[in-house]
Amino acid sequence: MTVPGAVPKPRTDGAVVASHGGIAVGTLQYQQRVAAGDPMRLDPRPGQVVGRDALLAEVGARLAAAPRPGVVALCGLGGVGKTTAALEYAYRHLDGYDLVWMFHAEEATGLLAQFHELAELLDPAGLLAQPDPVARVHGALARLPRRWLLVFDNVRDHAAVRRWLPPQGTGHVLVTTRDGHWPASQAVHLGGLTRAAAARFLLDLAGEYDTASAEAIAEQLGGLPLALAQAGGFVASTGRSLADYLELLRRNRAGVLERGVPSEHRASVIATWGLAFDELAATSPGSIALLRLLSCLAPEDIPFRLLLDDPAPVPDAVPDAVRDELQRLRDAPFGLDDAVAGLRRHSLIGPPSAVVSVHRLVQAVTLDQLHPDDRAAWTEAAVALVEAAIPDDVMVPEAWPRCAQLLPHALAVVDPAGWALGTLASFLRAAGDYATARTVSERRLEALRGTLGAEHPEALTVAADLALYVGEAGHEAEARDRFAALLPLLDRVLGAESPNALNARIHHAFYIGAAGDAARARDLLATAMPTLERVLGPENADTLAARDILANNTGEAGDAVRARELYEALLPIRERVSGPENWQTLIARSNLARWTGEAGDPAGARDQYAALVPVGERTLGREHPTVLFALAGLAAWTGEAGDPARARDMFEALLPVRQRVLGPEHPNTQATRAGLDHWTRLAAGT
């Protein structure tokens, strides 16, 4: 398709001008009119472009800021819409350029012919005296006084196109490529459309109003424009509904992804990626092995180096069918690096760092191509590698970053009834993410009940963990009721003095107190203490936890002095047994500070909290719930010690953090809001 340009006014300044809608090719030393054709050549404008306004704005800004001639490369997976974005940019900016020319840059032979054609347009009389059409075009563009835009579509790699890019001139160059190795200063990486944009695109193509099906299809296809266009084409050509397509996609993904190819596209998603798969199988088999492993995991932020960059043998649980392939990735000096580079060359993975992302549809197509036995082997390998990477002690803060990296991939691939999710739920609790700990435990409990039965000891243990996480997420009454229902089962199945039953009894008492009945909680724990010390030992972790809860509820029931004395006796034991910076020790210190204040020493409470907060921030993190609790105590006792304005300011700073970390309805967030209101009134003298 050609787009006519405007006819320029005659020039009288000695410059060469083009007639019939042509362009000026430069100021030479003599006058001459150059007969020229149409100065703009583009493929047809895309019929529908959604969700790319921000991207196109970024392209424009990058081109405007780049040294002339500015170069921007749209990099991405095949089918992600690079050509569509480039064309849309060109059409939106036609008025800003005097020349717009699109090259199909897959092969050098075809590209040379296209340069010859443009050279004849720019320099029809051969005034530049260059036999090489590329040099003629570059020379003409360097002399062209007005702006131009060249689009190089489907460039194989940066090195291959370098000689074709104009080195001088006042124009812009826009490249589309699957090569993920493009220089970062020029690269703009395309991803899939957002779910909302993809659904809108699909609804427009299909002429339907079934938003739920459109959004579900968009999720399944990862917002990939070519796959969405195929879906719309299939629905339009077969008369099926989007709901039908969704069902077909779930039942026969590989078959349906071969169909519905739009007329403006040359190949389906599977065929488009198949060329890359074939090339990698021949030139970089390690890339194929890595892609198969990555395809078994969650699509985002896969810690591939954590899983594979280890000289040790792969775990024993990795099946023999894939063991050698994974071991080669570990053993070869650059095995993993070369595999990553191969995948990146085709944009089959996102830009790598310590983690990498894979489009969910690439994952699906990769696994669909495998025999079921091979697919199972790669899945088992992914499970083995994820489980082997989980730290031995997830309760220490040093382990939390690794656990956080592994969690989404464990959720994607490991057996929900297995040990791994239980261990990661414990990490979440220690790190203060109680809501996610609850979600993970609910998933694990459902799986255990389905496989082992509701009264299996392991299922009962996880049910107790879940009750604890429910309470820590802010639902104290629900946690109390869960423990109350669970205790008879634990007593009957495991025994009333089993460690699990005793642990549940401790937490049941805790949530009785947290739900408002401190005196009953105190009495239950006072009755239980001799049994705990006899069965578990006086310095067992659960026994010490019970002493902590007993002391706190003693204070809540009205005896602040006794609560302070109990904490003063407990804290040295906690420090010796658990360590001075253990999170449970820090909780005991926090509670001692509180009851010091409640017993009549607000300045002492303030100073204890002031000493505690830096330790908590350093060991647990600034936004850990235990640290936030200490900050609330510091604010309150600062006010009680005589500085209401400072207390107000501290609560004001704390409230948005607690709202974000715990949620607006969590009891601790509500207490912070009440504290802010209280000290605001006192600071104002009202």
UniProtKB/TrEMBL annotation:
Cited InterPro entries: DUF7779, NLR-like, P-loop_NTPase, TPR-like_helical_dom_sf
The DUF7779 domain, residue ranges: 281-374
GO terms for MF: ADP binding
PANTHER family: AAA+ ATPASE DOMAIN-CONTAINING PROTEIN-RELATED (PTHR46082:SF6), ATP/GTP-BINDING PROTEIN-RELATED (PTHR46082)
Protein name in UniProt: DUF7779 domain-containing protein
Source organism of the structure: Dactylosporangium sucinum
